[in-house]
Specification:
Length: about 200
């Protein structure tokens, strides 16, 4: 009888540890930042809305951007994927020849300033709030697409960024492992008490 209760308790502990391991591996989640620009207010060279109406898109990183920070994404912090469009042209991580992701975040991790650009040869798309912390020359509050003899733009009306689920919506793996260790210790304690 004691052996049976010991086996049941051991299986419970094993199940708890297994479940915690699953949660821990699922705990790391990519974060996607989504941009919605205001409608373009100016057009040249045949560009027009409908078709080219505003810049919209998103980029995904493996960890949230640092809070109360500014800089450029580079190296291992580069987006794992991105795609931005004005309705006529799409710039993404598979077709761009160059891209920059400058950012400023507030204490909650929300993007409050940015300087981002994407190029496919001479075709270019920019979105910027022009903050001096990340952009020192030729920057203005603007969304623009140009480079094929036409352009579409707006000025002084930056768009907005959203982060579905917030910047810290998923517990980190170490938290889940700590919880699993605590539950395993409680289960072991009850086994020891039952055996005494």
């Amino acid at each position: 009888m004691r052996l049976t209760s010991y086996l049941k308790a051991s299986l419970k502990v094993a199940a708890i540890i297994f479940a915690a391991t699953l949660f821990a591996s699922a705990g790391k989640a990519d974060v996607t930042y989504t941009y919605t620009g205001h409608l373009f207010t100016g057009f040249t060279g045949g560009a027009a809305c409908p078709t080219e109406c505003q810049i919209a898109g998103s980029f995904t990183v493996t960890n949230p951007l640092p809070v109360s920070s500014s800089g450029y994404l580079f190296g291992s912090t580069l987006p794992t994927s991105f795609s931005f469009t004005d309705g006529a042209f799409t710039f993404n991580n598979t077709n761009t020849t160059s891209s920059d992701f400058g950012f400023i975040t507030d204490p909650t991790g929300k993007l409050i300033g940015w300087n981002m650009d994407w190029f496919i040869g001479t075709l270019a798309m920019f979105t910027s709030t022009g903050p001096s912390a990340i952009c020192t020359a030729g920057c203005s509050v603007t969304d623009i697409r140009n480079g094929d003899g036409s352009s579409a733009f707006n000025t002084n009306t930056p768009g907005t960024w959203s982060i579905p689920g917030g910047p810290t919506g998923v517990p980190e793996p170490s938290t889940m492992l700590l919880l699993a260790a605590g539950l395993a210790a409680l289960a072991l304690r009850s086994i020891v008490k039952a055996g005494a």
